[in-house]
Write a structure and sequence with these properties.
Number of domains: 2
Order of helices and strands: HHHHHHHHHHHHHHHH
Radius of gyration: 28 Å
Distance between the termini: 51 Å
Shape: elongated
Number of strands: 0
CATH topology of the largest domain: Rhopdopsin 7-helix transmembrane proteins
Number of helices: 16
């Protein structure tokens, strides 16, 4: 199997995966919000574009002149849909306008122009010379690339420069995955420009293969990441609204056994009580960025003194001490049937952990069970 065949295989495999993702999401999601809608449309248009490219490269064609030359520029709709997904995901859809309507009008105009040119060549061109259609295809791609680049630039400006517009979302998601996608997208745009230049100057269609391989990878990645992240963030928003009735209200840490230490005295007893009061009353344990230095500054003591205070009175180091509160909070939510609809990952993140892996590791360490096994006991 040569490399072109491998790329074509990945192309059709990616397209099929995209169609499955599109269908399954529609079937399994009881309610399709605008963000999810535009996400799955992004995946759908990438899939349709890759499928069309695969059909052409594989030699599947039709004897009908019109259908043979009716190339639908599905790629024109990819960036407008992704940008619309961003607007709804970041909850700035009321502040910024999408490009969907403009893209649809451009697509319609291009299909009409292509239809007219196909009819002209078929009925009025004696030799049926398709060079005029090929020339239009090249011009159409350049126009669409410029249009897509404008939208892509808008997305970059929104994500990297206008963080003040979506500061609320940043408390739930650091959007590093979106930034990574945009960086990857920049590389894809470069491949697109190179492919157009090489093809229009040499006629070598293999220039598009790196681009198609990259879009296949994007298709796999963006569908999973977007749907997973959106589900998590929606759960976290709803969870946070319910938290006031489910917060920890009493001391849950155990003091260490080293109560005979010279460090233990009435003054330090009071300091440790103040520490626990601060952590519970102000829910400091829910802050994923909480650090020893940050907590010490609020208590007006040195980090070293705070560390020793925690070690002696709880028998734990700082991380385990704080994670103890987080685990107790997550156990409270996981054992409550009211929170059954929410994902375990969303609960872990809302309880102060900064990732799924740290939550699962800490939960196993403190309870000897995975969060899934723990929740299953209360089903």
């Amino acid at each position: 199997m040569n490399w072109i065949a491998i790329i074509n295989f990945l192309l059709i495999a990616g397209a099929i995966q995209g169609f499955i993702f599109f269908g399954v999401t529609f079937l399994l999601k009881k309610k399709i919000g605008p963000a999810i809608l535009f996400l799955i449309l992004t995946v759908l248009f990438i899939s349709l574009n890759n499928l069309q490219a695969w059909l052409i490269d594989s030699g599947y064609s039709t004897g009908l002149f019109y259908l043979k030359h009716m190339l639908v520029p599905w790629y024109l709709l990819i960036l407008p849909c992704f940008y619309s997904f961003l607007l709804y995901y970041l909850k700035v859809d009321e502040k910024l306008k999408s490009f969907i309507n403009l893209a649809l009008w451009i697509l319609l105009a291009e299909l009409v122009i292509r239809t007219i040119l196909i009819a002209y060549v078929y009925y009025l061109e004696p030799s049926k010379d398709v060079s005029v259609i090929e020339g239009y295809t090249a011009m159409e791609e350049v126009i669409n690339a410029i249009f897509s680049l404008i939208i892509f630039s808008k997305a970059i400006i929104l994500v990297f420069k206008k963080t003040s517009l979506y500061s609320e979302i940043l408390s739930f998601d650091d959007i590093k995955w979106i930034k990574a996608f945009l960086i990857l997208g920049s590389a894809v745009f470069l491949l697109w420009i190179i492919a157009m230049v090489v093809f229009n100057s040499t006629g070598n269609e293999t220039a598009y293969y790196p681009l198609r391989l990259a879009t296949s990878f994007i298709l796999y990645w963006i569908g999973y990441q977007g749907l997973f992240r959106y589900t998590i963030i929606q759960d976290r928003i709803l969870l946070r609204k319910s938290f006031p009735q489910q917060l920890l209200t009493k001391e849950l840490t155990k003091r260490g056994n080293d109560q005979k230490s010279d460090f233990v005295n009435e003054k330090h007893n009071k300091s440790f009580s103040e520490l626990e009061e601060l952590i519970l009353t102000h829910q400091k344990y829910l802050d994923p960025l909480l650090s020893l230095e940050k907590l010490a500054a609020e208590l007006a003591i040195s980090p070293g003194h705070l560390s020793k205070l925690i070690n002696v009175y709880s028998g734990q180091h700082f991380s385990d001490y704080i994670n103890g509160y987080r685990i107790e909070q997550s156990k409270k939510l996981l054992s409550d049937s009211t929170f059954q609809p929410y994902t375990i990952v969303a609960i872990g993140l809302e309880c102060g952990f900064n990732s799924k892996s740290t939550f699962y590791t800490a939960f196993k360490k403190f309870t000897g069970q995975t969060p899934s096994d723990f929740r299953a006991q209360y089903d």
